[in-house]
Amino acid sequence: xxxxxxxxxxxxxxxxxxxxxSELCIPVIFGDFSxxxxxxxxxxxxxxxxxxxxxxIAGSIEHGVHDLGLIHVNDLVPGTANxxxxxxxxxxxxxxxxxxxxxxxxxxxxxxxxxxxxKEAGVPHPGHTEIFAEHTKTENFCMAxxxxxxxxxxxxxxxxxxxxxxxxxxxxxxxxISLTRQAHQKLLGKEPRLAVCGLNPHAGENGLFGNREEExxxxxxxxxxxxxxxxxxxxxxPDTAFTQSRRESVDAYxxxxxxxxxxxxxxxxxxxAVNVTLGLPIVRTSVDHGTALDIAWQGKAGPNSLKAAVxxxxxxx
Length: 317
Description:
Order of helices and strands: HHEHEHEHHEEHHEHEHEHEEH
Distance between the termini: 21 Å
Structural class: alpha/beta
Radius of gyration: 20 Å
Strand content: 5-15%
Number of strands: 10
Helix content: 25-40%
């Protein structure tokens, strides 16, 4: 359900009412039933499902809500995330992960978390991706955003720009290339066409910009992947990597840092792109937007991103 003070509850209500989603899968909301009831009342959205106990999840033939009872609706102020909502967010997702690892559900789709709220709650991770990796004991993983229009995987994620160069290694870039290649082989049923972005303007301009990261770190990773059979190009100048003509010949990009990937993804496929954690032993997808506290519980949030995340999770299963 994501942070209960954000838009997660209302987009979950929309998801539960979509007949196309019901034909595709059986969605079970991990959250608080009382929160969904209150959100339904405030937004005038229907909530025509029942509660599902932990023992009933695996055998359920109807969608519903697994009520975890983590936050009382009287203690919740819509649009205001705090330590209580952050604690609930964390427990929602870890409970869902445990259910997936136990085979009770086949995939986990996350609504948005509020990073500040989770930090206030003492959660030692900056976001959902890191929670999934820690809880599933996964060492080799990466964040990716997948859509029909553009797909990008990230070598580094939630770090400051000054930290990025020191975190880039040939092994890490090769790892992200390999994870991206494997995921898209399954999704496309063929060898994907991959493109790797450079770190510096103009991909370093032959050493003119930066500290030759392209030549010493990125190129060796590309060559190693190419030697393993990957159909791959790069390092490309980031400012021209995402033009329409280039996108038409690329299935997925490998980007060096957060905004190098997220700016083109959100500009081109804001409500279509799906956040995916590659390398996990379970399927995990997510919406590609935040908690939107300024419009939470007002019936304004669109469910398209959540529905796209559910559809992709079903494909990946």
